[in-house]
Amino acid sequence: MQPVNLFELASQKAKWLAVRQTAVSSNIANANTPGYAAVDVQPFEAVLDQKTVSLRATHERHLASADSSTGFPVRQSNDSVPIMPSGNTVTLENELMKQGEVQRDMELNTAIVKAFHRMLLMTTKG
Amino acid sequence: MVDPLISSLKVAASGLSAQSERLRVVTENMANAQSTGNTPGADPYRRKTITFTAELDRVTGARAVEVSSISTDKSPFRIEYMPGHEAADENGYVKMPNVNMLIEMADMREANRSYEANLQSIKQARELISMTIDLMRNQ
Questions:
Q1: Residues of A in contact with B125 (CB under 8 A)
Q2: A26–B62: do the CB atoms touch at under 8 Å?
Q3: By C-alpha distance, which of B81, B101, B100, B99 is closest to B91?
Q4: What does the pLDDT look like over A41-94, one tens digit per residue?
Q5: What is the rounded CA–CA span in Å between residue A28 and residue A32?
Q6: For residue B20, which residues of chain A lie inside 8 Å, CB to CB?
Q7: Residue spans of alpha helices (H) in B32-73
Q8: What is the pLDDT of residues B23-74, one digit of tens each?
Q9: For chain A, what are the domain ranges?
Q10: Of A32, A74, A110, which is closest to B61 when you measure between CB atoms?
Q11: Has this prediction a pTM greater than 0.90?
């Protein structure tokens, strides 16, 4: 009885945005760490297409990796090149831009959920 | 599972404490820019340096920052001719600390900038959390 799984999709997007925010925070915190490589989460489209193969725990002694707990793999971002002599690849400006993106996407996402919720309420209240 | 937004707050907080530690070292260097020894030919204050390292949190997969070491700068001391000084050697030369004010100021500005960026990401994470909570409000 759910032709459009919009709530599911929206919650997945919210989780993905939270993971991205963590990646950006790590990059900013490590902006002065020698040898640190900037990370970013895999694009949401790729997550939706399920292109990644994730490890499965088939034994009770297997440890869950950090990726499997969130479901969104965080990788070193390949668009950045080392610019600092210390080998650090973080550019603060880029990270702040990414933060802006996350914020806008989250606003859009919550607005969509609110709108859909209103529509459902309209149907139930009559 | 730890909420990624909460762990992002923790990572940013680790950045704040690392940068404030750095600011402390810079201040120490600037305060001791004129601290000489007090016996003839004694070594003066030696400039301190700070290094960071990325610490992986295995539960969340986030990489927080930590101070890895505070060591000393091995560069040579400045020599000044001050025969009346108590730390002057037999030729009247005094070793002054190897602190360069320009370098310290630049370091301080960079620490300041990084601190502000970390503050910004804390603000952002808080906003994202409250946006999600706002979904529960009566509309």
A1: 21, 25
A2: yes
A3: B81
A4: 888 888 778 655 666 677 777 765 555 456 787 888 766 566 678 888 888 888
A5: 9
A6: none
A7: none
A8: 999 999 999 999 998 888 889 999 999 999 998 877 777 889 999 999 999 9
A9: 6-125
A10: A74
A11: no
